[in-house]
Every structure is written in structure tokens, then in C-alpha cells.
Predict the structure.
Amino acid sequence: MSPIVKLNNVSKSFGSLHVLQGVSFDVAAGSVVAIIGRSGSGKSTALRCINGLEKINSGEITVCNHHLHHDVTRAQLRALHLDVGIVFQSYNLFPHLTVGQNIMLAPRWVRKQSKSEAHEHAAEVLRKVGLAEKFDAYPEQLSGGQQQRVAIARSLAMEPKLMLFDEVTSALDPELTGEVLKVMESLARDGMTMVLVTHEMAFAKGVADKIVFMHQGRVWEEGGGEMLSAPQTPELRQFVGNGL
Amino acid sequence: MTYTFDFSFLAEYWPQLLKGLVQTAQLSLLSIIFGFLLGTLLAIGRTAQSKLLRRICAIYVEAIRNTPLLVQMFMIYFGLASVGFKLSAEFCAVLAIVINVSSYTCEIMRAGIESVRKGQREASDCLGLTWLQSLFLVVLPPATERVYPALVSQFILIMLATSLVSQISAEELTSTAARIDSMTFRSFEIYTVVALIYIGLAFVFRLGFWALSRLVFPRLRRLGTPL
């Protein structure tokens, strides 16, 4: 199967700080790829580049047949966003809207769904994340874990071909982390293509088809879950040693 | 010092005062509505990506905020008249106040817009919303809700500042009072009454703005908490 995401020699710097230095990896359709690495290794930046949130300096990224390079236009990005969903560490729910309105906003204004259609669909994705009864609640009335599950539902409502998760459990305690990971696991089982940046080693090992270990802006090591038990490089060995 | 208060003029002049009150309310509401719209546009300009646009809006705001409303009013009314534009005093009054209040509203709304975290905009971009949709659906509603109390203060101030338009002989409450004063010479009484009317109008305005907030901010209505 041809890859749904392909990064080819991608470089990105913020000023004199070279965050990505020739990153290449790809993501097969229907697979789950976990990007791991310590803070500052460039993993979040790599994920944000896939979604065009950061413009790359050189190299090429292909995502769902959209080609991103250093001078991508707003219109191209918008087309890309229709195919790719992203969930952030800080949820980024819209605080002035109810859970239901958060989820229905884009389907109504972007997909031009009717109110009843959007409503029905929103209720369905909320059920999927186990929060059917929170349709009319406001984000501030929910726990962090619930807010993150709503954010996942909001992304799902746009029926993306690819979902990106940027350290989505980093702000949550272990119990809330568990409920979010469970939702992500069920998404993976349903065949959603997912790329996640995570510090949850057990989850990466158990759910990811491929793990990409980044270090100093480069892909240092990549492989299946077994890679974590038998690291090839001293850097990964040290990282896993600290992490587990 | 013996002074006998005499409010008997009210019997004859209250219809005029009432008319002045209505004119003041109209003048204020028009100025507030258009001042808010223009101020919001300016705030969008001041937070835009284009540096040129940001500069232009900043210059406008600083120029207006650092000159007296009365001088602005004279410039528009007498100034425009002397170069050949003959506009009614009421129109010039509204125009001057709109220009004035828009600069203050701009700064208040800018604070609101800047309080909306970058992630909100990123999330709406990533959901496929256009720039304009993001602005109106994601950025402006919480921005406005957060600075609403400051906006209301500004609007009440502007309502009180409409008394200045009596200086360009526009018809409203204070100019009506001045006219009655010149006929009855009951300055203390008449301006006391007018002050009370302003207090009453301010109260009604505050009540109206409170009701409006419950109408346009459903979250506030349901939870009552600050955003």
C-alpha cells in the first residue's frame, strides 16, 4: 500500500535553531505511527509540519495527495485541513460554545451540513468517545480527559482520512490519560490512520505499528514495538531506560 | 445666603426636557452602535498580519485618543462647513462621537482579541474554517464577552459625553436645559433635574446592556461565570 504521509528530507528551523534536519519517514494507510523522543527533539514540530501549522524550509511532505513545500498557499492548506484532523495537548475547545456546538461548527460551516444532519452526526461521534450525555455542557464544566475526548470527537466529525495527536495526554493525570488512550485505541482498531507524538511508551508499544524515535531533529531509529525492548542506539537505550 | 429652590418651571417645560432626553438617547445609541462597529473593524486591523494595516490603525487610534472630543467636534462641524460641506449639527455630532468612541472601543476590543489564545485560531484553521469564519465564529465572540464590562463603561461615558454636542447647537438634553435656563434663570434647579435625568438614563442603559449580554452570550446566561 502506498503511504498516506511521506516526509522526504524535511528541514525546519526557527531562526538559528535547526529543529528538523532532514527528517524522512512515512505512514502507511490504516496504520498507527508513534513519534517519541525527549523534549526538544523536534517530534511535535514534525507533526505540526504534516498539518502545515509550521512551514518547512526545505524537503517535501506529501499528505493524502497534498504536496507541502516551503511556499504552500493558504488555499492549499485549507484543502489539506479537510483531510487531516489534529488534536492538541491543550484541547483548544472553543470555550463560548457547548460541546455539541464545538463539534457541529466545522461540519455546518465547512461541510455545509444541515443542522439536523450535523446534530445527528455530532451525537454519534460523542457516543463514540463515551460522552453522549455531555452534548449541551460547556467545556469548562468537563474534566481534562473529557475535554480531550470532545476534541477528538470534534476532529472525527469532519471525517478525516488521517488523525494527528500532539501529546494529547501530557496535561492529564494517569486515570484521565487512560480514558483518552482507550478512545484512541478504539479509533486505531476501526482502522483510522493515526500519527501521534506521545510520552506513553506502553501505549506506543502496544498500539503503534511503527515507532519513530527522534533525536536532535533527526529520525534516530525507527521500527516496530519490539524496538523499545531492543534499542539499537545508545540514545534510545537511554531514553527508554529513563522512560520505563 | 438665602436661596429658595423653585421647581415650578417643570410644569411648563417638562415636555421639552422629555424631548431632549429622547434626543440624547437616540444620539447615544447611534454613536454607540456605529462606534462599536468601527472600533471592532479597527481592532481587527490592529491585530492583522499586515504591518501596514496595523500601523494605519494605530496612527488613527493614537491621533483620536490624544485630542479632545470637543475639538474633534468643532473640526468636523465648523471645519467642514468652512470648506463648503454644510452638514446638520446632529449629523456632525454623531460623526464626531463615532470617530471618538471607535478609537477607545478599538483598544478594548484589541485586548479582547489578544486574549484569545493562538491555539484557538490553530484549531479553527485545522477544522477547515476560513479566516473570516474563524474571526466571527471563534475569535470575536469570546473576545467580546471578556471585555464586555469595559465596553459598557465606555458606552456609558459616551452617553454622558453627548452633552458636549450642545456646544455645536445640536438638539439634546443639555442644550434643552441651557435654553430653559436662559428663559427661567433657574440654573441650579434645571441642571439638578438634568443631572438626575442623566443618572436615570445611565441606569436604563446599564440595565439594557446587562440584558443584551444575557441575550448574546448564552454561556454567560447559563453559567454566569467569567470566560
